[in-house]
Amino acid sequence: VNNVSDSKNLRVKLVLLGDSGVGKSCIVLRFVRGQFDPTSKVTVGASFLSQTIALQDSTTVKFEIWDTAGQERYAALAPLYYRGAAVAVVVYDITSPESFNKAQYWVKELQKHGSPDIVMAFVGNKADLQEKREVPAQDGMDYAEKNGMFFIETSAKTADNINELFEVIAKRLPRPPP
Ligand code: GDP
Ligand code: MG
Q1: Helices 24-33 & 162-172 angle (0-180, nearest 10)
Q2: Which residues surround ligand 2, an ion (CB under 5 A)?
Q3: Which residues have CB under 8 Å from 34's CB, separation 6+?
Q4: Among 10, 40, 113, 122, which one is most buried in terms of CB atoms within 10 A?
């Protein structure tokens, strides 16, 4: 996977996958711009943004983020985005069991066709909507653990755990030798 610049500065391709409406674009916008726009547009095809973070050990990680559209009509394009990705972030909405099932479909797809050393995160978004929750956190945690993924619940709306998501990913990346 082409995620290496040098031992101090990593560059990684990251792809977001998940059902339409789970909040993928809002997660990216929150991470990259620190904003939440409740009137944000539906992603067409895919969009690209990048963001660099600094870790405590003075290394930096530049995420090249491919935010895909979740609609069925774009499903055939997904391999273009996850092929060669060092990181996949699979997102569902904690208020939608259907999106949780769809997320599991994406995990299987990545296990079959993604890079063998891909770092995967399993993300339950819209954690601010506790009163509408339909997917227990434990279910997400159990599924992620079984499949060797890192699990976190986020809210793009309140910013809860958004930076943490990317920090944990950054720390889990394979490092080139110094
Ligand atoms: P995408 O299709 O996965 O990219 O989803 P979007 O990012 O376009 O978000 C879909 C809808 O969910 C929008 O109306 C957002 O305002 C809303 N949304 C996204 N993230 C959150 C969140 O964390 N909490 C709440 N309450 N709504 C969210
Ligand atoms: Mg989108």
Answers
A1: 90
A2: 24-25, 43
A3: 159
A4: 122
The stretch 57-69 carries a mean pLDDT of 92
Q: Whose CA is nearest to atom 17 of ligand 1?
A: 23
Q: For tokens 């050393």, name the residue.
A: 117
Quick one: which atom of ligand 1 is closest to the CA of 154? 23
Which atom of ligand 1 has the smallest separation from the CA of 26? 7
Strand partners, 61: 10, 53
- Mutation probe of ligand 1 site: the residue of 40, 153, 163 with most atoms within 8 A of C-beta: 40
Letter for the amino acid at 104? Q
**Residue pointed to by tokens 């405590």:** 56
Position 42 pLDDT exceeds 90: no
CA distance 135 to 131: 11
Please give the Cα distance from 40 to 174 (Å, whole number): 34
Question: Own/partner pairs for 94-97, CB < 8 Å, 24+ apart?
Answer: 94/124, 94/125, 94/126, 94/127, 94/129, 94/133, 94/134, 94/135, 94/137, 94/140, 94/153, 95/126, 95/129, 95/132, 95/133, 95/134, 95/135, 96/19, 96/21, 96/22, 96/134, 96/135, 97/134, 97/135
Minimal-distance CA residue to ligand 1 atom 24: 126
ipTM given for this complex: 0.99
